[in-house]
Amino acid sequence: GRFRRGGAGTRGGSAMAAGRSPPTFLLLGAAGGGKSLLVRPGGPGRARGGRGARPHPAVPVPVPVPQVGTNLTDLRLPRRVTVRELGGCMGPIWPSYYSECSALLFVVDASNPTQLSSSCIQLLSVLSAAPLASVPVLVLFNKIDLPCYMSLVEMKSLFRMQDVVACATQPITMLETSARDGTGLAEVLQWLRSALREPC
Fold first, then answer.
1. Is 156 flagged in the annotation as binding?
2. Is 88 annotated as a binding residue?
3. Tens digit of each residue's pLDDT (9 = 90 or more) over 151-165
4. Positions of the region Disordered (predicted)?
5. What are the structural domains, with CATH classification, of the chain?
């Protein structure tokens, strides 16, 4: 389950040589939610320590730059998939990528209450898109390592997730994560593997 980062011209590999692209998972969410850190190769918390493993205190954690544009990351689950991360500022053109989407990850900053309303609107817009009507969705409440984060219960209530799940046509899963210290990433990988087994 190691993440490998690539640019828009990601190496095609055997799947491209065979004329068949790997499945594409979309990684969406408002700017500053922690999407880039989730797919950073060898990032913090990916040591064998597992859940909550922290980097050595003497090793500075790089500050991610907000993603402007799109970035491709290869994942081995062990089947190869491509994760397409779209910057939060690209929200107006997200729909142009929906048709190639096999699964969707939507990241919410659980430490930023001022961003919740816009994130909720974005999520509802994504869920109502016709090309994504049957695509499995993972909502990640990220940055739970920060002291000001809101719990999963609070986030579900503020997002009215019970109503959202009841009205949505997609199967929706929710997880708490910290891309910085690795909490919840094992569960994310488990969900990604199960999404690959979903019938198309």
1. no
2. yes
3. 888 888 888 888 999
4. 38-65
5. 3-196 (3.40.50.300)
